[in-house]
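Weekly puzzle thread! Below is a chain. First person to post its structure in token form gets bragging rights.
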Amino acid sequence: MEFSFNFYKEVLNKLTEFLKPSFFQDYSEKGKLFLRHDVDIFAENVINMAKIENNCGIHSTFFFQPNNDFYNILSSKTVTIIDELSQMGHQIGLHIDSPFEESVEDLQSAIERLYDFYSKYIPLTNVISFHHPPQKVMNGFETGPFINVYGDKYFKQIRYFSDSKRREFADQLFSSFDQDKERSIQLLTHPFWWDHFSMNLWEAWERFLDVKKAGFKESLKEGFEPYRNFFDERFGK
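Winning reply:
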């Protein structure tokens, strides 16, 4: 299986012959395709994936982590990405890393606090996903007005496929779809794995380093005059 945008477009074209791309709020056990992207590592790559979907006339939901080691959800760069996604018609949700020791009540309270805070700065939908979801999240967890993408409706009552851990899901997805073109599907992808050409793990790592290094250099130039002068003298303007 190729983790390329061209192959992703093939997947979309095949599924949307019979399934209608829909947001999670518009649930149905039949006839719907719920596309979801968990942004774990590479926020800079999500616009490329979003453009592929827009070219196919499709909108999806991108989930960003509020406590991420690889990007800051409120940095000017990430907010610009999120605003562009929203303007393209995609939805934005929180991708929550839930500690296993939290009770259900603690988790409900944490979700409400996170949503109340981040919704002041970015256009959040009421749909939430979880990073490394604990068992309590997989057991039909719902809280107030929020939709859990691991809730029974989306995880058990319809079909679920994912590229988590760089899983090659296509054969299983196509086999299931060829046997049943009516039952709805939730498809999760992680933008870090995908690009204009398929890459192995080493190539994905090198691409990530190159992009982060360039972004870090530009941030130093913009924020600190000594580095701006240093880089201009060393590499040219």
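Puzzle host: Confirmed. Bonus trivia for everyone else. Strands lie at 20-21, 32-39, 61-64, 91-97, 124-131, 147-148, 159-162, 185-189.
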